[in-house]
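Hi R.,

Here's the chain you asked about this morning:
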Amino acid sequence: MIDKVEILNLVREVLDGTDKFLVDLHISRDNRINISIDGDNGITIDDCIELSRHVEGHLNRDVEDFELNVASAGLDCPLKMVRQYKKNVGRSLKVETADGNTRQGELLEATDEKIVLKLDLTKKQKKEGVSDVFECLYKDIKTAKIVIKF
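And the predicted structure, written out as tokens:
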């Protein structure tokens, strides 16, 4: 089986010192390598190609066969890293908390410990005086996804 640490080091050789970062790395038992990356200013296809070529160029198919997939963390993927939250301040998020509640609103702030949302409240909630500000620690977030608005 391909060594995850070796792949991680190869990824770091390309991404360290740039505005790009690793979001996820998964290697299956049958050597399918899936690398998901993001960047403070987005990811291009050229970024994915560069990383793919670098990783593939340092592995030997004669020793171990593998499948390699390098992709950007898409808008439909859950946010996994604090850095992703920070780059998406100003966007609308749908957050499911560990206790099963779901809230949606504009991401106003993302610190190293928590996020702050300005919630999309109904007229009824506004009449009832429900606060439109929601703070949540990262450890209490089950999933968070960007809401795409047209």
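The longest strand covers residues 102-110.

Let me know if you need anything else.
M.
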